[in-house]
Design a protein that fits this description.
Chain lengths: 199, 256
């Protein structure tokens, strides 16, 4: 398995790299369209802000190749948010691979933003990406923006409001939580992604 | 529902975890990697590593052991100790730390908080606060608290600093109540409640944990998001699986 790990400037690049290596994947860092060639899986991690993330993808010439990708793609955290059409963060346009708009979590009394810590995957749809992961499984989240629960959502999470924790449409998948920091549940998701053969 | 976090704190010196009694007489507890994995197995939700010699030696926390830990650990961890610039923080985050915690450098140059939040996102930036109640009944911050002889009191009210740190971009506050630290008689509920009322970002309690009941009390009475402790875990006085089962049984949401 040749995993292309996109460097979109996210501070979690190292930990995602190590998590994939622990599963036996051959990982290479990608900072240009050429470097994507031959990859059988692509991972777009990210921690930071949407505007800066897209700026980096554009500067590396990765926007069009990611839109045209023929192999499975997994966006993590900000990387998942960049899959959408638009983010309210920085009023930034995303890759548009998934329909919809990423919004800031409302927060409120006893609802801290950033949403930081272990929360449960509420409802879990039948998906090869969720094999072995039951509803109620804990995952580690750190984010202030989130995508709505929509037709592409295969697992949701609740922090005052419900939002998309895991999404999948065709070859494109996204995790709002950090599988690289979600212990056994996260390792299982990454392992499922590496074995995933969407049609 | 979001779980309350149980966070062991490990003091690290040259890649080894040490246990000090009132900042002296450090006892070697073992390799930081082994202890990190042991706490991960026990069900710790997150770990904090404090490079205790970084600040006194005028350097930032060491990337060597941070990278070793990041390669094997699959729960989040935060690194503290002598982080004074965006470059210091970048090296640690790229080595695999999830968050960096700043204390004295943030008080000396508050703009550092915003610089870090802008460079890496608010969620990476933890502001640690050492706080002590003074004779007039006010809580005020301390700097350089790693060494008693170097400690200073910059005459800043803790509650004011909590508000300012958030305005500048802190993504989480760790409040160490020094009056309770090391005493194992429970967290400083009054102070944590006062800070909670002003803290819209996650708040982690530190200082005073000595028994399972102290954790239940601080979650219930002060509504903190996480509880940090060191000696009560290191000494074996309290095992994390047992602690978490007890919290769950008393209706407090924890990850089992």
């Amino acid at each position: 398995m040749q995993v292309a790990l996109i460097d979109a400037g996210g501070a979690n690049l190292g930990s995602v790299h190590y998590a994939l290596e622990r599963l036996g994947a051959a990982v290479r860092l990608v900072r240009s369209a050429e470097a994507l060639h031959g990859a059988t899986r692509v991972v777009l991690p990210g921690v930071g802000a949407a505007g800066e993330g897209m700026r980096r993808l554009r500067a590396q010439g990765l926007v069009a190749p990611l839109r045209a990708l023929q192999v499975p793609l997994l966006g993590i955290c900000l990387g998942m948010q960049l899959l959408y059409e638009h983010s309210d963060e920085d009023h930034s346009d995303g890759l548009g691979l998934l329909p919809g708009r990423v919004r800031r979590l409302a927060g409120g009394p006893a609802l801290r933003v950033p949403h930081m810590g272990w929360n449960t995957l509420d409802s879990v749809a039948a998906s090869p990406l969720l094999a072995g992961i039951a509803a109620g499984s804990p995952a580690y989240f750190v984010h202030s923006y989130a995508a709505p629960v929509s037709a592409v959502c295969i697992a949701s999470c609740t922090h005052g409001e419900s939002f998309a924790a895991l999404v999948q449409s065709g070859r494109v998948a996204g995790a709002q939580f950090h599988p690289e920091r979600s212990s056994a549940v996260g390792a299982r998701l990454l392992s499922n992604f590496l074995q995933w053969n969407p049609t | 529902m979001l779980s309350r976090r149980i966070i062991p704190c490990l003091d690290v010196r040259a890649g080894r975890v040490v246990k000090g009694v009132r900042f002296r007489d450090h006892v070697d507890m073992g390799d930081c990697l082994e202890l990190a994995l042991r706490y991960r197995e026990a069900g710790a939700d997150e770990l904090v590593f404090y490079d205790i010699t970084a600040s006194p030696e005028g350097r930032s926390a060491s990337c060597d052991w941070v990278e070793r830990i990041a390669r094997v650990l699959d729960i989040p961890f935060c690194v503290a100790g002598g982080i004074r610039s965006v470059e210091d923080a970048r090296a640690l985050l790229h080595a695999g730390a999830d968050k960096i915690s700043i204390n004295t450098p943030a008080l000396e140059r508050p703009a550092l908080i915003a610089e870090l939040a802008e460079a890496f996102g608010q969620q990476c930036v933890v502001v640690g606060i050492d706080s002590l109640r003074e004779a007039d009944g006010q809580w005020r911050v301390r700097t350089h608290s790693g060494h008693p002889q170097a400690m200073r009191a910059p005459n800043k009210r803790t509650l004011d600093w909590v508000v300012e740190a958030q305005q500048r971009g802190a993504g989480e506050i760790v409040l160490n109540c020094m009056g309770n630290d090391g005493v194992r008689a429970g967290y400083d509920i009054a102070q944590l409640r006062a800070v909670r009322a002003l803290c819209a970002v996650p708040l982690v309690a530190s200082g005073g944990a000595g028994a399972a009941a102290h954790f239940a009390e601080v979650f219930r009475e002060a509504d903190v998001d996480g509880a940090l402790a060191a000696s009560v875990f290191h000494s074996g006085a309290l095992a994390i699986p047992e602690l978490k089962r007890g919290l769950r049984a008393s209706g407090i949401e924890v990850r089992l």
